[in-house]
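Q: What would this chain look like folded?
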Amino acid sequence: MSKSQEDFIVHLRHKYDELLPPLWAMVEIMTFGELSHWYENLKHRQDRNAISRLYDMDEKNLVSFLHHLNFVRNKCAHHNRLWNHNFTITLKLPKQRPLKVVASLNPNAERKLYNTLVILEYLLEIVSPNNHWKNRLFSLLHQHRIDIAQMGFPENHQSLAAWV
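A: My prediction, written as structure tokens:
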């Protein structure tokens, strides 16, 4: 925080005598990995549950997903291969909720990108409704003739809840 040159952080440092800025400001300057660890390390489980309920998820699933998503983000940042990669850090797949996710997961491809994409689509629809991300995803996959079976997509994926 003390090294940040973001305008709002500089303003907070000059205007207030607080040791730490407000939470909203801290989250703004956190890396995704720091945010993931922050959520996982919240002292009270009820705080993690309150956040995960916003996404109709169990807090253990959300911890797992944030950890996995940070791993995937880092692979992307370092231009590593994703499309047919077998992940070593996998998701704890939800078993009961959210229903849209559970109905769309491929338990036979737990080390593949497909399940990550299902959960990403679900969360994106919550934080940014009508974002058209899945349309852009399938357009790119089609345009580049990607073998989506190598990503863990089941044959019937078009009829699954996440993709309709």
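The helical segments are 7-15, 23-29, 32-40, 45-53, 59-77, 99-102, 113-127, 133-143.
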